[in-house]
Amino acid sequence: MKIRSIAAIALGITAASMAALPMAANAQNASTDYNYVGAGVGIGDDIGLSINSKVTVADNISVRPGVISDLDFSDNGETVFLLPVTYDFNPVTNNGRLLPYVGGGLSVSTEGSTSVGPMLTGGVDYRITDRVVANGAVNVSFYNNTEVNGSVGLGYTF
Q1: Distance CA 151, CA 157 (A)
Q2: Dihedral sign of CA atoms 10, 13, 16, 21 in order
Q3: How far apart are CA 39 and CA 41, in angstroms?
Q4: Could you give phi then psi for residue 142, rounded to 5 degrees?
Q5: Angle formed at CA 83 by CA 92 and CA 80, multiple of 5 degrees
Q6: In 3D, which of 58, 50, 53, 55 has the Cα closest to residue 80?
Q7: CA angle at 128 for the pair 126 and 132, rounded to the nearest 5°
């Protein structure tokens, strides 16, 4: 029950943060060459916390390292480390704020014995302001079995 309370608090903080931000604020002329680090809610077998980031390495190419943890410490809960390389599409809206991406890379899971495998990812960034980005991602990791997880969060751009 305590884990669900922590997850509910994390979800509530993320939702409140998004609601409190000035949604009509002008973003910079959005392009794909921004970087961020953020946190949010991880979604998989259980709900937990996520840390996500984006580092641009070339035109429309980024590395998006992240961690998703289900916070279930009672049975050595799972933590997934993600290291995908993505292709960042040009903005798909007239205001230039909605920026989708797809990619692939490596995923490491600590559930049971540590597993390493390839992964596919896809998601979207939404530039709320020039310094704040909302993001969402879905990840498919291929270990002995296929595992799907994702995250929704906020990031601070730099």
Answers
A1: 18
A2: negative
A3: 7
A4: -115, 100
A5: 110
A6: 50
A7: 95
d(CA 61, CA 71): 31
Nearest-angstrom CA–CA distance, 131 and 44: 28
The overall average pLDDT reported for the chain is 83
Token couple for 99:
């920026």
Tell the residue number behind the tokens 């410490």, with chain if given.
Answer: 73
Size (the chain), residues:
158
Euclidean distance between CA atoms 103 and 137, whole angstroms: 11
Q: What are the tens digits of pLDDT across the range 115-124?
A: 999 999 999 9
- Provide CB contacts within 8 A for 58, sequence distance 6+: none
Which tokens hold the place of 17? 């943060």
Asked whether the beta carbons of 46 and 104 are under 8 A apart, the reply is: no
Inter-residue contact 57 to 49 (CB < 8 Å): no
Residue 100 identity: P
For residue 131, pLDDT beyond 50: yes
Nearest to 8 by CA among 63, 44, 48: 48
Q: What is the pLDDT of residues 1-51, one digit of tens each?
A: 444 444 444 444 444 444 433 333 333 345 678 999 999 999 887 789 999
How many angstroms separate the CA atoms of 41 and 18, rounded?
A: 13
